[in-house]
Amino acid sequence: MENARDYVILEDELVDYAKNEEGCESVGSVLVLYTGGAIGMQPRDGAYEPEPHYLTNYLTQMPIFNDTSYVPAGLSLRFLLLQDKHILIIISLRFCRQKREELNRRWTSKEQFSPRLPTCRPSTASVTLAIPLTVRKRRILYRVIEYAELLDSSNCVMDHWISLAKDIEQWYDHFTGFVILHGTDTLPCAASALSFIFENLEKPVVLTGSELPITQLCSDGQHNLLGALLFAGAEYGIPEVTVYSQKQLLRGNRTVKSSATDVDIFVSPNCPPLAESREDIKIYYDRIWKSNDKKRRLRVNPDLCPNVAILRLFPSISAETVKAFFQPPVEGVILQTYGAGNVPSNNQELIEILREASLERKILILNTTQCWRGTVAVVYATGAILNTLGVVSGCDMTPEAALMKMAYVLAKWKDPATRRRMLAHSLRGEMTEPILETRVGLQSIIASPREMIDASLEHTRGLGELLSNADANGLAPQWAQKVFPALMCVAAETDDTETLEQLFRIAGHFEWFDHSHRSPLHLAASVGSIVVCRLLLDGGANPNVVDKFGYTPLSYAIRSNNSTPALIELIRQYGGRLPAFMSAKAKEANNAARLGLIRRLRLYKLAGLTLEELDAEGRAALHTAVVYRQLNTVRYLIAPARGSSSTNLYESSELDMFEVDGAEVDPHQRTGYGMSALEEAKRRNFTEIVQVLEACQ
């Protein structure tokens, strides 16, 4: 199985080549899970049916999905062309020769699919493909997992979506984002279910499909798949389950299918798009769901309760029909009511059935409106009566989201009061909760000319309010959209917590970026400010967003001259990690070894590295320290490590409190091209290093 896993994880040499190719500034990676649907179907006997491997083979023939300038059929030719550039490239070639020969064999023999993978359902994986460089000069690599049984979405059940989530969890750390190709009929159900199945999600999971096969001239499949790849592999960092369709990225649990035949398949009636890709890509960061708990790693909730039902009221509905919906084994019912949540309150038999089911038999009832737009609200007496029966308001949830949330809540919590509380609370942005407070209006701030002239915090508030309400009032000038991110980033970099708190009250989030796509958390980490970092993380800042160079906030924290173990532990407690690619992690650590920065190496160790990771040249930190004659670094790396001298690393502020000994790396570890550290030292006649290494043989 371990060998089969290698067919899914992208080859390090391909990733490193992308990073070094001319014109490329960053690299993203996407795992595409192809479950079925019209996008890969072919006509057969007058009807469309799934065709195994047809879609992936078609993608390899399309330049927009397989940039042949990056991945030509003669894969070895590309590597050979690099030999003249630098001697280290030749070493890298030797390091990856076996892998390269395997890739060539698969290409030349047209064997483009792997053996069976360790997925929940039988599947195969394609070769690595690449789309052309994006406008932001980002190279996105992707691989397609195709399940052996390609399903029409009408045949999907909850277990299928749980297995998809488990497969994503298995390769979660190895990719920037994920795309799920799914049939459109039940895609909103799938998106809603996955939004609850995933807990502590920090990476984009984008669902898409098409009404027509991708090979048809009028198909929407090409645009939808390309857009999904862009948003899953780009640096935007939208940590939600979303749906991409017709140039819009929609929140998954807010999406409904609006047409049975048109290519404008999906709409989000009560939640505007999170992003749009028209003449340029626009991200609405203020609309992205911010989780209050980012301290834990991704968790897949493996249980959804199937004992749920949807009851749509209609005039003259009989009491017997309603009563039938509350018979065992039903545990939860979505009640689709009229208008703003109204029921026929003069039908005492109906009201009594609802009362008995909710209050006596503890069946969970969620009140949602039959209307696409608008929300459940206590406006009329015919709706207020449900509150007295213990019925929970579903606000503006879609039927799909309400059904899947009910299944999730019933499976996760057993106490009836807790279940009702969780149903009434927005868990994944699936509903608009009633607004309890209103922000200070723009007019109240700008009413006084003195406040607009005074360069004070009130001026900043006014500007922020202007920006945050730009879509509603149309008053924000274009230049202002550049000023507000600058204010946020400067405040983070200068330890100005007061301004950050004021800006957060206005904008409601910290997802702003400078010209290098560095977030306020990047900048606070770069100056080692644990107070600001804690403020940002508590406010929902994404701890794993990458800048244009591929670095996360944890990378910045380690490289900061003011960094402490406490800061590293804080970011890690909120789920912060180093870059996903192993060679990128090794490159960071090896650079510290090259410069003899032992303190930084200790922090990398604390952040989870073994310091034995190999970079693109096939070297680990010890080999690098030897090559650059860093004697003290060599001593630190091979010295035994007794661990921390402090029982509470989080409260520790001094380096010697968390590690006073060595890294205990293997002194016999060989490079990718077969040399040990001792052989490297002897080759260069570094006598003092040879003596140290021989002493530990």
TrEMBL record:
Record-annotated Asparaginase/glutaminase C-terminal domain positions: 307-422
Residues annotated as the enzyme's active site: 184
EC number: 3.5.1.1
InterPro entries associated with the record: Ankyrin_rpt, Ankyrin_rpt-contain_sf, Asp/glu_Ase-like_sf, Asparaginase/glutaminase-like, Asparaginase/glutaminase_AS2, Asparaginase_C, L-asparaginase_C, L-asparaginase_I
Domain of life: Eukaryota
SMART domains, per database record: ANK, Asparaginase
Keywords on record: ANK repeat, Hydrolase
Domain L-asparaginase N-terminal positions: 30-287
Any single biological process term in GO: aspartate family amino acid metabolic process
Molecular-function GO terms, alphabetical: asparaginase activity
SUPFAM superfamilies tied to this protein: Ankyrin repeat, Glutaminase/Asparaginase
Enzyme class, broadest EC rank: hydrolase
ANK-type repeats, residues: 516-548
PANTHER family named among the record's database cross-references: 60 KDA LYSOPHOSPHOLIPASE (PTHR11707:SF28), L-ASPARAGINASE (PTHR11707)
Protein name: asparaginase
Organism annotation: Schistocephalus solidus (Tapeworm)
Organism lineage string: Eukaryota, Metazoa, Spiralia, Lophotrochozoa, Platyhelminthes
